[in-house]
Structures are given as C-alpha cells and as structure tokens.
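In response to reviewer comment 3 from the previous cycle, which asked for concrete evidence that the modeling workflow produces usable outputs, we include below a single protein chain processed end to end. The sequence was submitted unchanged, and the resulting structure tokens are shown without manual editing.
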Amino acid sequence: PLAAAQKMNLRGQAHHLKPLVIVADKGLVETVMAEIERALNDHELIKVKLRGDREARKAWARRIASQCGAELVQSIGQVACFYRKHPEKPVVNPG
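The workflow returned the following structure tokens.
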C-alpha cells in the first residue's frame, strides 16, 4: 500500500493525464479489463472514466484495484486514477 505522501505525489503527476479507458453501459466486461491491464503495463499511472451512478463507480473502482493489483490513487466524480508499479522497468516515481 502507498503512503499518504506517495498518493499525494501521484495525484500531482496524474493531474495532467487524460482518461485512457472509459467504462460505460456494459460495465467491466473482459475486454475493458484487458485494456486497463494493458494501460497499467504501459503507463503505470492511468486515469479511467467511470460512466455510471455513484455506487456503480465505487464498485468498479474497487474491482479494478483488486483484479489488476493496482492502487486506487484518487477518485473524483467520474474519473478514477490507478497506479501499479511495473515489475521490471518502473517509470513513475511514487515519491
């Protein structure tokens, strides 16, 4: 788990990012989860747009974090930010 200071640093780094994946009407289907996995492998720090009601967004964010082994850095409105360190060549410094 990340420390509070690390999450704050990652939030700052993620501020300028655009959402790479959008979760909409069909929810977290297999193809969307595969795209999130690919994005985490490529970028380590990503934003995901969650298009649903508040409870669905919370559930999706928890499911993404648990299934992908990622850390939920921040969730504001319909955008959630996730971080997962690359095992071989990390690029993002959590601070």
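Residues 54-68 form the longest helix (15 residues). We consider this sufficient to address the reviewer's concern, and the full set will be provided in the supplementary archive.
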